[in-house]
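Fill-in record for TetR/AcrR family transcriptional regulator.
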Amino acid sequence: MNTSRRDRLRDGTLTEIREAARTLLTTRGTAAVTINAVAREVGMSGPALYHYFSGHQELVQAVTADFFAELAAAMRAARDARPGGSISARLLAACRAMRAWAIAHPAEFGWIFTSPVPSSVTRAPDSARNLAGRDFERVFQDEIAKLWETRPFPVPDDLPPAIREQLRAYTEKLGIELPVEAVYVTTSCWIRLYGILCMEVLNQLDYIYTDMEFLYEECLRDLAATLGLDYEPPPA
């Protein structure tokens, strides 16, 4: 469908605003990303920017959605570069692409994963941030679903009722067609992967390690075993 010149100009301005916010984030830090600062970067007044975003929170959500989309695209590209590969090869490629993106974009990674999410956002499942976040999650979920269909991995049979109920609500909300026990295993894997990646990107272990690739690969090896997959080392 053709768009009007006015719509194209508006879309261009929206992109410019989000790019200005990203530049402020990467050069001056999270606190620098204010409505007035972003407005100055694009040559408009603070009040004028409200014609494009209702407030700071909506701007933050839009920028976060951009980062999620960029990260998901990098992971999909790495995964899909192995079209004839095993599920293990595709999943490991996506995980390695996530680390590569995070190391190359530490400010953006921190913005996505280490900033508190306001309750108003969590209560808005169709917000830009949450839609982009779910698309990112599907990079993993699609491969896990294929794995479960072809070769189910070991799962616990004694989950506490409270955990089981929370997982059931989560799977129903997102339409995940996996048993809650399988979702428990995969979320546990994600928590471990996320934890070690955060510690690396946020320099929490830089007093010990200057390069944590070995530890990340060790984590991937353990997660592959948990999912009943063969670990394949990264290409030389």
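KEY FINDING: DSSP finds eleven helices and no strands in the chain.
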